[in-house]
Design a protein that fits this description.
By secondary structure, the protein is α+β, with helices and mostly antiparallel strands. It has helices spanning 23-40, 136-143; strands at residues 4-8, 62-72, 83-92, 96-104, 113-124.
């Protein structure tokens, strides 16, 4: 499977009044995984995708989240073991890509997926904020990290 892995420590503030990781925290986990993959290149694997989707030029290309779905499968308890976000590209368009994720509980004995998610990302011009086509280099870097799309239970 062509997935990158991002390990994230849970924070005390991620939990809700019931002692479970709050659903709002999941959106932050996905955001952090995208930043580490597409901007910093600091996941477990070096993907090479960060060179094509972020520029230091304010007028350069930007990634915008157009749509995001999260499906919660199990309760995640706060703990000292990091969670792992598995991230891959499930679909590639002309100016967009779908980032797919599985969030894995690091405290579980066996691999336990607690949530699945899909973010539809549109690449836009930094000035006009209008969609732009993915560069050939960007498309090539993404294609190495494509895998089967997430299958949501609903929708």
């Amino acid at each position: 499977m062509a997935r990158t892995h991002i390990d994230l420590e849970l924070r005390w503030g991620d939990q809700d009044a019931y002692g479970h990781v709050n659903n709002v925290a999941y959106a932050r986990f996905l955001e952090e995984a995208r930043v580490r993959t597409f901007w910093l290149g600091s996941g477990r694997e070096r993907t090479g995708m960060e060179r094509h989707f972020r520029g230091d030029d304010p007028a350069g290309p930007k990634m915008l989240v157009a749509n995001q779905q999260i499906e919660f499968l199990r309760v995640l308890e706060y703990g000292e073991r990091p969670i792992t976000i598995e991230l891959w590209i499930g679909k590639l368009g002309g100016s967009s890509l779908e980032v797919h994720y599985e969030i894995v509980d690091g405290a579980a004995e066996e691999r336990t997926v607690v949530a699945r998610a899909i973010s539809q990302i549109v690449i836009v011009d930094g000035v006009t904020m209008r969609p732009i086509r993915l560069s050939d280099e960007g498309r090539a870097s993404v294609s190495e990290w494509m895998d089967e799309p997430v299958r949501m239970r609903r929708g």
